[in-house]
Amino acid sequence: MRISVIGAGVMGEALIAALIKAGHAPAQIEVIEKRAERAAELVNKYAIKIGSDLSNVDVLLLVTKPQDVDAVLADINGKVKAGALVVSFAAGKKIATIANGLSGMNPVVRVMPNTPTLVGKGAAGYSLGSGVTDHQKEFLINFLGAAGIAVEVKEELQDAVTATSGSGPAYFFAFVESMVKGAMDLGLTEDVATQLTVQTIIGAAELLATSGKSATTLRENVTSPNGTTYAALQSFSASELEVIVAKAMKAARDRSIELS
Fold this sequence. Notes:
The chain is an alpha/beta fold. It is built from eleven helices and eight strands.
């Protein structure tokens, strides 16, 4: 199976690493990147090849910026082997847009990844276009699984995926920033506040992922009546944390719709 990756930014590199982790030979992976130095860097790092000819590629990963998609499609239309799977990672770009840009000659999958893909802990939502074969879907699941987890959703829910896992890491980082600042306001140094906050988040996430218990149960287990945690959670409740989060996610979803 020959695989070509158009776009060699940080996400493009993460996907190349995932392909290799999933068992695809580096010699069968090609990168197409307008920055020659960046392409050479990835060739040296992963032992992949520089690509140009798309006529015998079996899978094409589009990892370009959304604003560059139309130009890229115009450039490669008619050059991609008919029936080759095209997987788009361009935020907001619909399956129909990609398929039409390739004259309807290729099955298309739309994927919304997130930045933890860079460390093999990504959460992706994917939607299948018409004509995707069972073999191609199996490739997709195995490949995305090497970079984290992947769930299939209807395309009309891709904007909700964007608001949940796509933008989600930034919500987490913002919360960490607030915790660190709060700890510093209470007298801890920035270094100590950062260490304690980051490890607390890591530990809590691991506990949630491995305990088999829901977030609700774990929260209840650590909350003693009228204790310190209870006081903090009451403050969250008084500030309508649930409403704040829901409103932020809706704003992200709505913006995703506007950009599509």
